[in-house]
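Following up on my earlier message about S-adenosylmethionine. Here are the inputs again, as you asked, copied directly from the submission form:
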Amino acid sequence: MVDTAITLEPGLYVTATPIGNLGDITYRAVVAMKSADLILCEDTRQTAKLCAAYDIRTPRSPYHDHNGDRVRPGIIKKLQDGASICLVSDAGTPLISDPGYKLVRDARDAGVKVMPLPGPCAAIAAMSAGGAPSDQFFFAGFPPAKSGARSKFLTGLFDIAVTLVFYETGPRLVASLHAMAAAFGDRHAAVARELTKMHEDYREGPLSALAEHYDHTPAKGEIVIIVHPDQPKTASPEEIDRFLVDALQTMRVKDAANAAAQSLGISRSIAYSRALQLKDGA
Ligand code: SAM
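Thanks, got it. Here's what our run produced:
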């Protein structure tokens, strides 16, 4: 149990909270929440559970999409007067598909210090254990709910050649998986569900197979969809040999190798040495 309150530097602390497992909160986040003058919550009832678990008694007040425009000037005034305020959402990192962007923007414009207190984020958690190429990825947030807007949104992502990460809800999962298969082709994907919770689950497969599975077994809970990048086609040794044997009937070794490299997407040197072997009857 963290029971140390400290004197916090004035400013806005953008504070990540657990996405399921209550243990996933940083020591620094608990100290800041205990020590701040105020905690701004997406939903005060949700944050009350976290505060009860960590004996955080700081006053709480709502900040969300419906009251943001009205309460923001007062919050900025408090910050300018030297308050230390934590901003939390219901789960994970504020601003990541959650409220807070305009508050952070206005605080920065007003010269207020804004500090991240990093921690859980469903997209990062899903990527960290999902097995998709992770050196680069594109976080696309929630696809639109209406089918026309969703197709347009997904088609716009077609040319992005890295792993795509989406947030989704159970009731819309199947429609989104079908729409992704239509927009991207039947790419390999993973559905990461209920991360850090009792029924945590990863399921992998082609988009169409995942859609079929969840059509029969409706998914409950919170979901991240990970779509792998389109795989460059790799030719098998048999395909390379077939191509080269055919090409060598009418072409010189060098030209056959060049044609194979271009058509099959393999290296010229590999195509050349295999073409030589075939020519020599190897
Ligand atoms: N700010 C949060 C974050 O940092 O991840 C995301 C908030 S967004 C309103 C909620 C969405 O995040 C859910 O619909 C789901 O797509 C995803 N999500 C949140 N918690 C999750 C969990 N435990 N497992 C899988 N996805 C989760």
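One observation from looking it over: The chain has three domains: 11-120, 123-227, 237-279. Hope that helps, and feel free to reply on this thread.
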